[in-house]
Amino acid sequence: MKPMIEVKNIVKKYRLYNKPIDRLKESLSPNKKKYHQEFNALNDVSFIVNKGDAVGILGKNGSGKSTLLKLITGVISPSSGEVIVNGKISAILELGAGFNPEYTGRENIYLNGLMMGYTREEMDEKINSIIDFADIGTFIEQPVKVYSSGMFARLAFAVSINVEPDILIVDEALAVGDIRFQTKCIEKMKELKSNGTTILFVSHATEQVKRFCNKAVWIKEGKVKAEGASSEIVDLYEDYMKHGNDYFGAANTNSVAVNRAFDKSDEETIILPEDPNILASITNVNITKDELKSFDQLEIEVIYEIYENFIEDILIGVALYTPKRDYIFGPNTHLEKIEIPKSFGRHSIKYIVPKLPLMGGTYCIDVGIFSNEGLICLNYKENANQFVVTNDYFSEGLVYLNHRWEVVK
User: Fold this and answer.
1) What is the Cα–Cα distance from 72 to 50, expressed in whole angstroms?
2) Which of the listed residues 6, 138, 150, 210 has the most CB atoms within 10 Å of its CB?
3) Which UniProt keywords apply (predicted)?
4) Looking at the structure, do residues 99 and 185 belong to the same domain, yes or no?
5) Is 333 left (phi over 0), alpha (psi -120 to 50) or beta?
């Protein structure tokens, strides 16, 4: 079966001029002098949307989301690349787009139907359901230039989702309108989705994307940052938006050296530090997987070296943090009465969480080696490693708490 939408290596460039007159200067310049700067709104974007998919498009303002939708609908053309669409599109890109402000609501319904390829007779069969859905009363007979933004949204949605499109594209239109209207729109979109309509859905309300869409594409600075199951991509995107830095993909190896390289072939060779006050150090912090799901097993291997013959009260601590340094959990071997090697040499212990209760997001691992019941820090490695948790949607928050519900009445 052919995909409904194929986006192939799309590039969209715009010319930016400092002053309007520069555009004229450039066109008349005999030596072809450039007065513009090129801006890539989209840069080598590719993805496929299959029949019946509901795909959320995520990204900050200015990331290229709306440009992408305009390319798919044919409102603008790509600078290079190709967009292939197999089916009739109904799109809500901007409130009032495709409406003639001098026409009444009723007349604009017929106008939009005509632009989508329907005859007047075919629209006669649909118009009552569209008017009922819009529910704007007698304003349907008034010029749309007197409509509020909420009325625009109602009429635009009513037209778009009651004309049986093969592909429905919605760009932030749900942000306008009351809760009852938003609920009605979502219910209608669910009905279209169950009937096989393909939906592209742009919204800053990431929970709507997670709950309504089965797939998502994250656009960052004009490029596809990630695509896949909506719940997983939303987790990654929300984590990026919370912390402001691109942690996704930072933990892309299963072993990160945090002090100096650990060469297993040279396992027994201990190089004493030049500073005699360094009694012990963390040399490596390894994790078995850097991408997990809630309730996966997390294994953290801590490799450390002791430079004294024996340190009686040495202990290891492992702490989990968010990238913004919100402390989650931090046990140590002394508190939990775990005996660890204390003699000269290189040693290895594992910290294991059999069922990780963390919800979606990026998490940092700190590791420290201490003495005197944790009062003296011998060596501490902040953000020694990282891992990412993504999930199918089943709950919200930072950690999953075991719980139960009871119906009282």
Assistant:
1) 14
2) 210
3) ATP-binding, Nucleotide-binding, Translocase, Transport
4) yes
5) alpha
Read off the CATH number of the domain in which 55 is found. 3.40.50.300
| Shared-domain flag, residues 180 and 43 | yes
pTM score: 0.71
Domain of residue 338, residue span: 255-389
Residues 225 and 260 in one domain: no
Contacts of 91 (CB under 8 A, 6+ apart): 69, 73, 160, 168, 169, 170, 171
For residue 380, which amino acid is it? Answer: Y
Rg (CA), the chain: 29
Query: What are the structure tokens assigned to 151, written together?
Result: 């009325």
Q: Where are the alpha helices (DSSP H) in 135-270?
A: 149-161, 179-194, 206-212, 230-243
Contacts of 202 by beta carbon, 8 Å cutoff, 6+ apart: 56, 57, 65, 66, 69, 170, 171, 172
- Taking residues 277-302, report their average pLDDT: 93
Q: What is the pLDDT of residues 306-333, one digit of tens each?
A: 999 999 999 999 999 998 889 999 999 9
**164 shares a domain with 274:** no
Nearest to 207 by CA among 198, 199, 216: 216
Q: Angle formed by the axes of helices 179-194 and 149-161, to 10°?
A: 10
Q: Are residues 26 and 136 in the same domain?
A: yes
Cβ contacts of 306 within 8 Å, gap of 6 or more = 279, 280, 314, 341, 342, 343, 344, 345, 347
Q: What CA–CA distance (Å, rounded) separates 228 from 231?
A: 9
**Same-domain status, 228 and 259:** no
What is the pLDDT at residue 334? 93
Phi and psi at residue 304, to the nearest 5°: -135, 160
pLDDT reading at 254 higher than 70: no
Domains in the chain, number: 2
